[in-house]
Sequence to fold (250 residues):
Amino acid sequence: MTISLEGRVALVTGAGRGIGRAVALTLAQAGAKVAVVSRTEANAHETAHAIEQAGGVALPMALDIADPVSAETATETVLKQWERLDILVNNAGITRDTLLLRMKEEDWDAVLQVNLKGAFLFTRAALKPMMKQRWGRIINITSIVGLTGNAGQANYAASKAGLIALTKSVALEMGSRNITCNAIAPGFIETDMTESLPEQVRQYALQKIPLGRLGAPEEVAHGVLFLCSELASYITGQVLIIDGGLTTGI
Fold:
């Protein structure tokens, strides 16, 4: 069965590269109009151009996710352009990795500000038009470390665990309005973030992943596409783990 998002409007944060870029392209291929939000203007325009080259419709926006004004600005721009907002994918995220004893307050604050508060701000803004429409799909890109924790990533893991709790809370609050909210927890995915991993860490991960490889951004995007579709209309408040089996048995 082919999933169609014709007539839908999506907003994807952190869509300039990696998983966010793959998500934006995948939703556009399914027929959605996509607002491409990235901190870097060049990246936003590059993803939007790729969508348009493939025959899709895109709107690039360069915004700082941690800025409280950004969410309202993005939502207002989308509504002015397309008069609706159906899908929100909170994907933007940063890391500031170090052991807790060495972690500076600014490293903690920066990660929580983008990864968790940013998702809160964009979700709050997006809910207004979704409630009027009585239809919406919110997908939060969390991480398996939000479920397991990870040494050297206390701030990142805490932000991703908070995102899971936010997901479940929004699902409980918005179910009666036909708005679903789910999370996807990727494992090791081939992105700029995993490219910087030390080789010994990479090899250790490969040994632990039952499928024996890192995932592709498109494989996460396919999970997003499913959760955005009518096929997932009775799924809300859930965490879909896409990790090649890494966390199986934990």
Q: What stands out?
A: The longest strand covers residues 179-186. The chain has a mean pLDDT of 96.
